[in-house]
Design brief:
The protein has a six-stranded mixed beta sheet, with helices on both faces. Strands 8-15-14-11-9-10 form a six-stranded mixed beta sheet, sandwiched between helices. By secondary structure, it is α+β, with helices and mostly antiparallel strands. It has ten helices and 15 strands. The relative contact order is 0.19.
């Protein structure tokens, strides 16, 4: 396998990382154990299978000296290339039995991945109850986005009988010489790209100028992490959607808004006139198709109506905001800030990484992201996956991130927080469950 240059957004994720804000995404999977040795057997399986997955052998190497003229402009970038000394045992770790999987996950989430080797880890956590174990998969965002991480994790689980992805067309051989008749079209395309970048930049600046950060969602970097998980019956979400309208995603975002209102009220923070800005990432991939490894993300910026006391009113506000974003499309507005990465040279990413990391809190207060999961049940060593909680990285200066996945008829919310800024993350988790009951009750029988 040959090396390839990191895509601009991958490079941005690689460069904005710091010790206090590691840029890895993760998933905590809870399995039903079929024997006392199930966790140890799972760790052995993961290590053995990882050796045969090419994507897990890839390390990221900084590029300073161009090997060819073609890569001159890539100075300051990085490449993804096979690690010559790859050993899966360096990445798969079996821990001592634990009583609470989420309590054990927090400290593991706060540790950055080692940058000199393939940036991923799998931590196997046996349960003290002897009837369950968990696996925490960690992938650096420069190695994989949510969909790619799912593909890599699935490759070391028990085999699934899934449809084969449609292959991408083979790239043309050689470097095509532009036809002079194509130049007007190429020029128009370049001008449109520049105009789109200016439009996004203006929207980002406007969003920052009008920002009123929510104090409970901002924090100074401490490097500590705490996680929690919430399970919701998908049938309840569909009940709300059919009764009140909107999409499943609208309902899931509205539930976050309602939970934040309850949590802020419990903490004694005011909610009147407050509307935290949520960044909702939007994948620009097409599922079940072969794709390059690079991240392809845009996003929507949505104000969460925590000041509205009516659960249905909050859902209507979220639905209106999401409809407005969809009408504009994922290439416009402040939420599309990730697209600006395509217009920055690699050396620019290298130099501006720390500044960009600092600027995230000026644009949004909280990340609310959805991670796709396959509908068939997953197993590891014959042990069924019962629960799976996606976990997102925290941006600098932010205290909380929310990720959500749907699996086997249930919605799984994964909450990641700065442990010092949000010592009461369990209160927010309970508030999320209470909001489900309130919203379904508001929809009537």
């Amino acid at each position: 396998m040959t090396s390839d240059l990191l895509a601009p957004l991958d490079l941005a994720f690689w460069n904005i990382e710091s010790a206090e804000h590691p840029m890895h995404l993760a998933a905590l999977g809870v399995f039903t154990a079929r024997s006392p040795t199930a966790a140890a057997h799972a760790a052995d399986l993961l290590a053995a299978r990882a050796a045969g997955v090419p994507g897990l052998r890839m390390r990221i190497r900084d590029l300073w000296q161009p090997a060819t003229l073609r890569r001159t402009l890539a100075i300051g970038g990085a490449t993804r290339e096979p690690a010559p000394d790859f050993d899966p045992l360096d990445h798969v770790r079996l821990h001592a039995p634990v009583a609470d999987f989420h309590a054990a996950t927090g400290p593991l989430m706060q540790r950055p991945l080692e940058r000199g080797r393939p940036p991923w880890e799998a931590h196997v956590l046996p349960g003290e109850d002897g009837v369950s174990f968990a696996v925490l998969f960690k992938f650096h965002h420069a190695l994989a986005d949510g969909l790619r991480a799912l593909t890599l994790a699935a490759a070391i689980m028990d085999p699934l009988d899934l449809p084969a992805p449609r292959p991408r067309p083979a790239p043309p051989r050689g470097t095509p010489v532009p036809d002079v008749r194509d130049l007007p079209g190429l020029l128009r395309g370049r001008l449109q790209d520049v105009a789109r970048a200016l439009d996004i930049t203006t929207s980002v600046a406007r969003a920052g100028w009008t920002a009123r950060p929510t104090p409970a969602l901002t924090s100074r970097p401490t490097g500590t992490r705490r996680t929690a998980g919430v399970l919701i019956d998908l049938d309840e979400v569909h009940l709300v959607r059919k009764s009140a309208g909107g999409t499943v995603n609208d309902v899931l975002i509205a539930l976050v808004a309602g939970a934040l209102r309850r949590w802020l009220d419990e903490r004694g923070d005011g909610v009147d006139g407050d509307a935290p800005r949520a960044l909702i990432p939007v994948s620009r991939r097409r599922p079940r198709t072969a794709h390059p490894q690079g991240n392809r993300l845009s996003g929507y910026l949505v104000r969460l109506p925590v000041d509205d006391p009516d659960p249905l009113g909050r859902l209507r506000a979220v639905r209106t905001a999401m409809d407005r974003n969809k009408e504009a499309g994922p290439h416009r507005g402040a939420g599309a800030v990730a697209l600006l990465a395509d217009h920055v040279l690699p050396l620019g990413h290298r130099l501006s990484g720390p500044v960009v990391g600092q600027a995230a809190r000026l644009l949004f207060d909280i990340l609310v992201t959805s991670v796709p999961l396959p509908s068939p049940g997953l197993t590891l060593g014959g042990c069924p996956l019962a629960e799976v909680y996606p976990l997102a990285p925290l941006a600098r200066g932010q205290a909380l991130a929310v990720a959500v996945s749907t699996y086997r008829g249930r919605v799984h919310y994964g909450l990641v927080a700065d442990a010092e800024a949000v010592p009461d993350l369990d209160v927010l988790a309970h508030a999320l469950s209470a909001e489900v009951a309130a919203l379904t009750e508001a929809c009537g029988p």
